[in-house]
From TrEMBL:
Organism phylogeny: Eukaryota, Metazoa, Spiralia, Lophotrochozoa, Mollusca
Annotated organism of origin: Biomphalaria pfeifferi (Bloodfluke planorb)
Domain of life: Eukaryota
Name of the protein this chain belongs to: Peptidase M20 domain-containing protein 2
Protein backbone atom coordinates (compact mmCIF):
# COMPACT_ATOMS: atom_id res chain seq x y z
CA UNK A 1 0.00 0.00 0.00
CA UNK A 2 1.00 3.63 -0.48
CA UNK A 3 0.90 4.24 3.27
CA UNK A 4 3.37 1.43 4.00
CA UNK A 5 5.61 2.67 1.19
CA UNK A 6 5.54 6.21 2.59
CA UNK A 7 6.30 5.04 6.14
CA UNK A 8 9.30 3.01 5.01
CA UNK A 9 10.62 6.04 3.09
CA UNK A 10 10.19 8.20 6.21
CA UNK A 11 11.99 5.60 8.33
CA UNK A 12 14.87 5.36 5.84
CA UNK A 13 15.16 9.17 5.84
CA UNK A 14 15.25 9.25 9.64
CA UNK A 15 17.88 6.50 9.78
CA UNK A 16 20.02 8.18 7.12
CA UNK A 17 19.88 11.51 8.95
CA UNK A 18 20.68 9.89 12.30
CA UNK A 19 23.62 8.03 10.79
CA UNK A 20 25.00 11.22 9.24
CA UNK A 21 24.48 13.18 12.48
CA UNK A 22 26.32 10.49 14.46
CA UNK A 23 29.21 10.35 12.02
CA UNK A 24 29.60 14.12 11.89
CA UNK A 25 29.38 14.56 15.67
CA UNK A 26 31.85 11.81 16.58
CA UNK A 27 35.45 12.90 16.04
CA UNK A 28 36.68 9.33 15.51
CA UNK A 29 33.97 8.82 12.88
CA UNK A 30 35.14 11.73 10.72
CA UNK A 31 37.55 9.54 8.76
CA UNK A 32 34.86 6.94 8.21
CA UNK A 33 32.42 9.64 7.13
CA UNK A 34 34.92 11.10 4.66
CA UNK A 35 35.67 7.63 3.31
CA UNK A 36 31.99 6.89 2.66
CA UNK A 37 30.77 10.44 2.09
CA UNK A 38 29.96 10.13 -1.62
CA UNK A 39 28.21 6.83 -0.91
CA UNK A 40 26.15 8.40 1.90
CA UNK A 41 25.34 11.49 -0.15
CA UNK A 42 24.12 9.25 -2.98
CA UNK A 43 21.96 7.26 -0.54
CA UNK A 44 20.70 10.47 1.08
CA UNK A 45 19.84 12.01 -2.31
CA UNK A 46 18.15 8.86 -3.60
CA UNK A 47 16.08 8.67 -0.40
CA UNK A 48 14.96 12.30 -0.78
CA UNK A 49 14.45 12.15 -4.56
CA UNK A 50 12.71 8.74 -4.70
CA UNK A 51 9.31 9.85 -3.29
CA UNK A 52 8.84 12.50 -6.00
CA UNK A 53 9.62 9.90 -8.66
CA UNK A 54 7.17 7.42 -7.13
CA UNK A 55 4.39 9.99 -6.69
CA UNK A 56 2.54 10.83 -9.92
CA UNK A 57 2.67 14.57 -10.58
CA UNK A 58 -0.62 14.77 -12.51
Amino acid sequence: SKECEFMSIVQIKALAMMAIDLMVSEENMKEVFEEHQSELVRLYESVWIAPTEVTPQQ
